[in-house]
């Protein structure tokens, strides 16, 4: 028996990174998965590698595109139980507040904050139609702690996701919809490793603050998402669900 037997999950940003890992895991655990990502992504390939999945093109920053994503999910699988709002960007021109231009700020908010808003706005009604469900909004540890190596737009967008998730958790709790903010620590994915590929010192500057001395794997984050998606987490609601290896608990680390 799978931990998500009979459930339908829509995962945004599922072509690669953590979302891809989660799509594989959720489908192994019995879910039907909608692998949602941008047209030029490897989403179709990810869906083909899952047990039971469909690729849907989406731009999470665009309202009609998000509504159409759910319409396709509904037509394919007859209902929706899990929203895993995972799509996010961290562009290189989002940096210190002194050098980040307003257009970079706008692009990041459009995907990371407005994207989650739209995915909840158009997705939660489908969960209500099913009598309940689980929403996993991806924030980050940076919603809780500050860094001198700033990515100001990204950090602010993740703060928005965290507080939006708490409010939704309270609003829909009595209708069976749980909403949690999944807050990963640094993870070995293309998004992060791209930034460090030609700058090992920048990587080391971050690694040293991790009590476990290493970044998370995508599977470790997907495992946490699986718990939040499944009925095993039936009393977990409105949580700031940290999966950070102790990073936000740390003052002085072992090195
Ligand atoms: N990697 C980390 O260290 C880390 C840490 C904390 C939080 N996160 C968050 O986890 C989530 C997944 O990150 P990842 O590391 O797997 O990144 P990734 O870049 O590997 O994957 C992100 C996916 O989102 C998709 N995407 C981007 N813009 C989109 C849009 N407008 N519409 C639809 N899809 C879009 C991309 O095509 C990509 O497949 C993100 O929200 C990220 O902010 C990552």
Detailed description of the structure:
The chain is α/β, with parallel strands linked by helices. The chain is built from eight helices and seven strands. The chain has one domain (8-239): 3-Layer(aba) Sandwich (Rossmann fold). Helix 3 packs parallel to helix 4 (102-129). It is globular. The model has no long low-confidence stretch (mean pLDDT 96). It binds nicotinamide-adenine-dinucleotide. Nicotinamide-adenine-dinucleotide binds at residues 12-13, 15-19, 37-38, 41, 58-61, 86-89, 111, 138, 140, 184, 186-187, 189-192.
How many helices? The count is: 8
Which structural class is indicated by helix and strand composition? alpha/beta
What order do the helices and strands follow? EHEHEHEHEHEHHHE
CATH architecture: 3-Layer(aba) Sandwich
CATH topology: Rossmann fold
What quaternary form is this?
single chain
Looking across the biggest beta sheet, what order are the strands in? 3-2-1-4-5-6-7
Compounds present?
A: nicotinamide-adenine-dinucleotide
Terminal Cα span: 43 Å
Radius of gyration: 17 Å
Q: Determine the strand fraction and express it as a percent band.
A: 5-15%
Q: CATH-wise, what's the superfamily?
A: NAD(P)-binding Rossmann-like Domain
């Amino acid at each position: 028996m799978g931990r998500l037997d009979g459930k339908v999950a829509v995962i945004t940003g599922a072509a690669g990174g953590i979302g891809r890992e989660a799509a594989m895991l959720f489908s192994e655990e019995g879910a039907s998965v909608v692998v949602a990502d941008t047209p030029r992504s490897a989403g179709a390939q990810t869906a083909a590698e899952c047990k039971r999945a469909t690729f849907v093109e989406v731009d999470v920053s665009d309202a009609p595109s998000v509504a159409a994503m759910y319409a396709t999910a509904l037509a394919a699988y007859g209902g929706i139980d899990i929203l895993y709002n995972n799509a996010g960007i961290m562009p290189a021109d989002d940096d210190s507040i002194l050098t980040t231009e307003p257009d970079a700020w706008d692009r990041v908010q459009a995907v990371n904050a407005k994207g989650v808003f739209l995915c909840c706005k158009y997705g939660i009604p489908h969960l209500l139609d099913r009598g309940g469900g689980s929403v996993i909004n991806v924030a980050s540890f940076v919603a809780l702690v500050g860094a001198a190596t700033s990515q100001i737009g990204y950090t602010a967008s993740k703060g928005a996701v965290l507080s939006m998730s708490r409010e939704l958790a309270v609003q829909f709790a009595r209708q069976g919809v749980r909403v949690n903010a999944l807050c990963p620590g640094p993870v070995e994915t293309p998004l992060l490793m791209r930034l460090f590929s030609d700058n090992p010192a920048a990587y080391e500057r971050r690694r040293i603050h991790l009590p476990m001395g290493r970044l998370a794997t995508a599977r470790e984050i997907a495992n946490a998402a699986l718990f939040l998606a499944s009925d095993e987490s039936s009393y977990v609601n409105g949580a700031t669900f940290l999966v950070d290896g102790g990073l936000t608990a740390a003052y002085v680390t072992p090195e």
